[in-house]
Amino acid sequence: MVGEKVEHFQGKGTDLSALQSHIEQYLKAGGFTFQASAPSAQGVVIQARKGGFLAGIIDADRAMTIMIAGTPDDFTVRVGIGKWLEHLAVAAFETLLISDLFLVVDVAETAWNFEIEDKLVKDFRSFIG
Questions:
Q1: How far apart are alpha carbons 66 and 80 in whole angstroms?
Q2: What is the per-residue pLDDT for 124?
Q3: Exposure class string for 78-108: b at 16+ Cβ within 10 A, else e
Q4: 3-state DSSP: the chain helix, strand, coil percent, rounded to 5?
Q5: Contacts of 16 (CB under 8 A, 6+ apart)
Q6: CATH entry, 5-128, from 3.30.310, 1.10.10, 3.40.50, 2.90.10
Q7: For the purposes of burial, counting CB atoms within 10 Å of the CB of 29, is it exposed (0-12), middle (13-18) or buried (19 or more)?
Q8: Burial degree of 16 (CB within 10 A; 0-12, 13-18, 19+)
Q9: What is the mean pLDDT of the chain?
Protein backbone atom coordinates (compact mmCIF):
# COMPACT_ATOMS: atom_id res chain seq x y z
CA MET A 1 0.00 0.00 0.00
CA VAL A 2 1.22 3.47 -0.90
CA GLY A 3 0.13 6.97 0.03
CA GLU A 4 1.45 10.26 -1.22
CA LYS A 5 4.83 11.76 -2.18
CA VAL A 6 5.74 15.04 -0.47
CA GLU A 7 8.33 17.50 -1.81
CA HIS A 8 9.25 20.54 0.32
CA PHE A 9 11.10 23.55 -1.12
CA GLN A 10 12.67 26.46 0.76
CA GLY A 11 14.38 29.62 -0.43
CA LYS A 12 13.46 29.15 -4.10
CA GLY A 13 11.32 32.25 -4.68
CA THR A 14 9.09 30.26 -7.02
CA ASP A 15 6.02 31.83 -8.58
CA LEU A 16 3.44 29.29 -7.39
CA SER A 17 0.89 30.23 -10.05
CA ALA A 18 3.58 29.67 -12.71
CA LEU A 19 4.33 26.29 -11.09
CA GLN A 20 0.63 25.42 -11.24
CA SER A 21 0.51 26.41 -14.92
CA HIS A 22 3.65 24.39 -15.63
CA ILE A 23 2.16 21.28 -13.98
CA GLU A 24 -1.11 21.74 -15.88
CA GLN A 25 0.78 22.03 -19.19
CA TYR A 26 2.75 18.89 -18.34
CA LEU A 27 -0.50 17.02 -17.67
CA LYS A 28 -2.14 18.37 -20.83
CA ALA A 29 0.88 17.29 -22.93
CA GLY A 30 0.61 13.84 -21.33
CA GLY A 31 -3.00 13.44 -22.44
CA PHE A 32 -4.55 13.92 -19.01
CA THR A 33 -7.87 15.55 -18.25
CA PHE A 34 -7.40 17.85 -15.30
CA GLN A 35 -9.18 20.31 -13.07
CA ALA A 36 -7.95 22.73 -10.41
CA SER A 37 -9.44 24.28 -7.31
CA ALA A 38 -9.71 28.02 -7.06
CA PRO A 39 -6.44 29.34 -5.59
CA SER A 40 -6.71 30.39 -1.96
CA ALA A 41 -4.41 31.51 0.81
CA GLN A 42 -4.00 27.82 1.73
CA GLY A 43 -2.95 26.72 -1.77
CA VAL A 44 -4.34 24.99 -4.83
CA VAL A 45 -5.30 21.41 -5.72
CA ILE A 46 -4.95 19.95 -9.21
CA GLN A 47 -6.52 16.63 -10.14
CA ALA A 48 -5.74 14.67 -13.28
CA ARG A 49 -6.99 11.45 -14.77
CA LYS A 50 -6.32 9.56 -17.92
CA GLY A 51 -8.62 7.25 -19.85
CA GLY A 52 -7.68 4.45 -22.19
CA PHE A 53 -6.20 1.25 -20.81
CA LEU A 54 -5.76 2.82 -17.37
CA ALA A 55 -9.53 3.05 -17.00
CA GLY A 56 -9.59 -0.73 -16.57
CA ILE A 57 -6.83 -0.66 -13.94
CA ILE A 58 -7.66 2.46 -11.97
CA ASP A 59 -11.12 3.02 -10.52
CA ALA A 60 -13.06 5.60 -12.52
CA ASP A 61 -13.41 7.83 -9.47
CA ARG A 62 -9.65 7.97 -8.85
CA ALA A 63 -7.27 10.70 -9.97
CA MET A 64 -3.71 11.81 -9.52
CA THR A 65 -3.95 14.66 -7.03
CA ILE A 66 -1.38 17.43 -6.68
CA MET A 67 -1.57 19.98 -3.87
CA ILE A 68 0.64 23.09 -3.84
CA ALA A 69 0.64 24.98 -0.53
CA GLY A 70 2.81 27.61 1.08
CA THR A 71 4.67 30.73 0.01
CA PRO A 72 7.13 31.27 -2.85
CA ASP A 73 10.04 30.82 -0.42
CA ASP A 74 8.62 27.91 1.60
CA PHE A 75 6.15 25.58 -0.08
CA THR A 76 5.16 21.94 -0.33
CA VAL A 77 3.96 19.94 -3.31
CA ARG A 78 2.08 16.72 -2.50
CA VAL A 79 1.39 14.16 -5.22
CA GLY A 80 -0.71 11.02 -4.82
CA ILE A 81 -3.83 9.18 -5.82
CA GLY A 82 -7.09 10.64 -4.61
CA LYS A 83 -10.80 10.55 -5.21
CA TRP A 84 -11.89 12.51 -8.31
CA LEU A 85 -13.92 15.36 -6.88
CA GLU A 86 -16.63 16.72 -9.15
CA HIS A 87 -16.60 20.50 -9.50
CA LEU A 88 -13.20 20.87 -7.86
CA ALA A 89 -12.85 24.39 -9.28
CA VAL A 90 -15.65 25.66 -7.05
CA ALA A 91 -14.89 23.60 -3.94
CA ALA A 92 -13.76 25.48 -0.85
CA PHE A 93 -10.18 24.61 0.13
CA GLU A 94 -11.30 23.82 3.68
CA THR A 95 -13.69 21.21 2.26
CA LEU A 96 -10.84 19.69 0.27
CA LEU A 97 -8.73 19.26 3.37
CA ILE A 98 -11.32 16.97 4.96
CA SER A 99 -12.10 15.02 1.79
CA ASP A 100 -10.36 12.07 0.15
CA LEU A 101 -7.55 14.12 -1.41
CA PHE A 102 -5.05 11.30 -0.96
CA LEU A 103 -5.96 7.64 -0.66
CA VAL A 104 -4.00 4.53 0.17
CA VAL A 105 -3.81 2.59 -3.09
CA ASP A 106 -3.58 -1.06 -4.05
CA VAL A 107 -0.98 -2.85 -6.18
CA ALA A 108 -2.44 -2.02 -9.62
CA GLU A 109 -2.64 1.66 -8.80
CA THR A 110 0.80 1.63 -7.19
CA ALA A 111 2.60 0.86 -10.46
CA TRP A 112 0.75 3.63 -12.27
CA ASN A 113 1.24 6.00 -9.36
CA PHE A 114 5.01 5.48 -9.16
CA GLU A 115 5.54 5.90 -12.89
CA ILE A 116 3.50 9.06 -13.28
CA GLU A 117 4.53 10.59 -9.94
CA ASP A 118 8.23 10.11 -10.59
CA LYS A 119 8.05 11.73 -14.03
CA LEU A 120 5.96 14.63 -12.75
CA VAL A 121 8.17 15.22 -9.69
CA LYS A 122 11.33 15.23 -11.85
CA ASP A 123 9.68 17.71 -14.19
CA PHE A 124 8.57 20.20 -11.54
CA ARG A 125 11.89 19.88 -9.65
CA SER A 126 13.61 20.94 -12.86
CA PHE A 127 11.17 23.84 -13.27
CA ILE A 128 11.73 25.01 -9.67
CA GLY A 129 15.51 24.70 -9.94
A1: 7
A2: 94
A3: bbbbbbbbeebeebebeebeeeebbbebeee
A4: 35, 30, 30
A5: 43, 44, 68, 70, 71, 72, 75
A6: 3.30.310
A7: exposed
A8: middle
A9: 79
d(CA 105, CA 91) in angstroms, rounded, equals: 24
Helices (H), 1-129: 16-29, 54-57, 93-97, 107-128
Position 19 scores a pLDDT of: 97
Distance, CA of 128 to CA of 121 (rounded, Å): 10
Report the C-alpha gap between 111 and 44 in whole angstroms. Answer: 26
Residue 27 has phi, psi (to 5 degrees) of -65, -45
pLDDT tens figures, 31-65: 888 999 888 888 999 998 876 544 554 556 778 88
Q: What is the mean pLDDT of each run of 10 residues along the chain (129 residues)?
A: 79 96 94 88 86 52 87 94 71 59 60 75 93
